[in-house]
Amino acid sequence: MEQATTLNHTEDVYEPSLTPDSLGKLGMWIFLIGDTMSFGALLAVYAALRAGAGVIGWVPPSEILGINLTAFMTFLLICSSVTMVKSLESIQKGNVSRMCTFLGLTILGGVIFLGLQVYEWTHLIKHGLTLTEIPHHSLSGAAISGSTLFGPTFYAITGFHGLHVTGGVIYLIVILIHGLRGRYTAEFNHEVEIVGLYWHFVDLIWIMVFTFIYLL
Amino acid sequence: MAKNEHDKHPRYMLIFLWLAILTAIEIGVAIPEYSIVIKAILLIGLACGKAFLVAAYFMHLKLEKRTLSVIVIIPFLICVFLVIMLMPDLTTDTRHNAIEKPAEKVVESTPH
Which CATH class for the A20-215 domain? Predict the structure, then answer.
């Protein structure tokens, strides 16, 4: 009894030491916090340039960008986040094949997202949105003019996010290969949780990018 | 960490449903033409709601120690601060003042 009281007291006073599991998770959180600042800076610059466009004006993004496609891309990333948590849930219950299936679906979601982004970029470049110019006509065909800074900021932000998705897909493939080789069990699965943190973060950032760049 | 299995795995499909509903509302709010300020407030509010759902339930922040939530929310606050601090320097009025008025002011303030 006395020993138990002493142990409880020790737990109250000191934080438990970092284990390999918690160390990896902490490392990912630190990376994500740094990444938040990178995206935050990009979005802040976008907002500042838009506010400062003044006399030249800033073409409403909805006149150049199609919302329907990107709304579907948003929905796709949300779906892939669900398959990611389902994958973690499966391995925590010891179901390896279910985990691999859900991981595969998550990867598929990421790959389709990237494919749609390539399609969108190609379409926009053909329509006249480049790093130095904006299209002369809106989606409805009306003549438009405004700051040419929309192009570089749009491509920088969506491109930076696209790179994160690409990195996430590669990361997920590595974890899937480990999973197929039987590395993960109900007791050992923190690596799946860590890749999940990264993937949900990519989803979370897209929620912000979708709002700031496409909807506003 | 989690107290039991239900706490450890929230109802993910319910969260998914909420995220889908909020996305649909976002599009409904974004399409009509009205005040950009009201639109911005509504859309940013909805985006923050969605971000909260992802962070709290999918990233399991709700099940982690509160200290981690505090650490995670700080960069978001710093980003808001960054936007607010950039605005005064780039708004139309300050740019116009900087372009149009400095020469007059210099002449006026020069002692003879």
Answer: mainly alpha
